[in-house]
Amino acid sequence: MNDVRPLRTALAAVLLSLVAACSVLPEPETVRVIPLAVPEPESARAGIDYTLAVPRPVTDAARDDRHVLVRTTSGTLTRYGPVQWPDRLPDAFRLALVRYLRDTGIAPSATGSPASAERVLLLDLRAHELAETPGGLVADIDVEARLLDGDGRLVDRERFRATEPVGALQPARVAAAFSGALADTLPRIAGWLARHGGRPAG
């Protein structure tokens, strides 16, 4: 019997230490997912008269991720922890563009497979992040677009850049700034596509 009490005491001490350890564990971090909001379609936009494929955009390894990045004035990329994209950035950007092209009627049958398309839109995401500038923090979108014909020959290329002020570094303001930059970028890409073989607005 004398050996039982020390054992019980030792077990109780272990349990108390485990409870104390659990009480100091950090709370789970809350991460807000911000979508790449598709701009409202404009009325009577001219469509294209060719079938279009939009493969997954290319980008560098740092941007091929769900994390929202901040580019400092020195060019360093860091993560802005409280928010993420709904998918890896190239996939989220492609989905937003394809939905815009379909919703506006510019390319109702836009697809991801170049096999059956008359033209292919290749995208290079050079930047899609928050950027520190002398005028303050901005959402910065920079994408190069190349339009190829069915034989892989270059039809045209264009660079699209848009920035939108963020103001205070808060998730809601970050989401609003990227929505503004995207609302500038997507219609310009669509208009550029329409100039290379458009049909009258219906």
Q: Care to describe what's here?
A:
The chain is an alpha/beta fold and 202 residues long. The chain has three helices and nine strands. Strands 1, 3, 4, 5, 6, 7 and 8 form a seven-stranded mixed sheet that branches. Strand 4 and strand 5 form a beta hairpin. The radius of gyration is 25 Å and the shape is elongated. The termini are far apart.
Biggest beta sheet summary: 7 strands, mixed
Number of helical runs? 3
C-alpha-based Rg, rounded = 25 Å
Decide which structural class fits the backbone: alpha/beta
Write down the overall geometry: elongated
Question: Count of DSSP E strands?
Answer: 9
Would you list the SSEs in sequence order as H and E?
A: HEEEEEHEEEHE
* Average pLDDT level: 85
**Beta-strand percentage range:** 25-35%
Name its key features.
single chain; alpha/beta; 7-stranded mixed beta sheet; two-stranded antiparallel sheet; 29% helix; elongated
Annotate the secondary structure layout.
Blueprint: H1 4-23, E1 32-33, E2 47-48, E3 52-53, E4 67-71, E5 77-84, H2 89-103, E6 119-133, E7 136-149, E8 154-165, H3 171-194, E9 198-199
Parallel strand pairs: 1-5, 3-6, 4-6
Antiparallel strand pairs: 2-9, 4-5, 6-7, 7-8
Quick take:
This protein is of the alpha/beta class. It has helices spanning 4-23, 89-103, 171-194, and strands spanning 32-33, 47-48, 52-53, 67-71, 77-84, 119-133, 136-149, 154-165, 198-199.
